[in-house]
Amino acid sequence: VKMAAWLWLVVxxxxxxxxxxxxxxxxxTDLDLSIFSGATADYVLPEKDFPxxxxxxxxxxxxxxxxxxxxxxxxxxxxxRDTKQGSEVFGFFNTQKLTRTTWGAVVETTGLPCKGTVSxxxxxxxxxxxxxxxxxxxxxxxxxxxxxxEFELRKSCPASAYQRISGGGEERLTDGSxxxxxxxxxxxxxxxxxxxxxxxxxxxxxxxxxxxxxxxSLPGKIKEGFCFTAYLFRKYVTKSETSDYQPLP
Length: 249
Hints:
five-stranded mixed sheet; four-stranded antiparallel sheet; 3 helices
């Protein structure tokens, strides 16, 4: 009876099966993150700033290992390397947030309150689909003062992981691109429409160009603008009164 009760507690606290962990959105096909989940063992790697401690985390499930400090249900903890005593909880599985990306997915969780602050510990795990990925995690950022840690885990993914959803996920045009498109469309309509209108009214040759006098004088006006700017630069910046600038009539 005691053995059965213990097994039930392990199943209860270990969290749902990793196969239920699906990252969706971003115009990409759904990605089953079970390939990144540690089904039989947690991911363990040494801390950067504190050699006597190590990180223990899992993906899409709570850690298989836990103790009094790194309590059951935690998915990201740090612990001592020698005695394996838990220290801080940086993330609980039940706070998990998944974000689908073009290169894989991002898993974010929140942990216990961070001492000396008004915020909680939190973490980010970048799950990168990489054909050459070894499945060995690395620490990207580690900040106990900032109450934050970030890992990266690279593994080979199925071909569908790189596929976009047909008709979805296209990047929208920037405001600048939209303005340029509108400008050139209006310019095209102005010239073509004006040319057709003047031709219909009996104009011939270059006289069919809308506002011909303005466009013919435009190069000279641009040149005058540059000359005037150079004149002001010499007068007020270099303090030189010597100038051959003459306004156009």
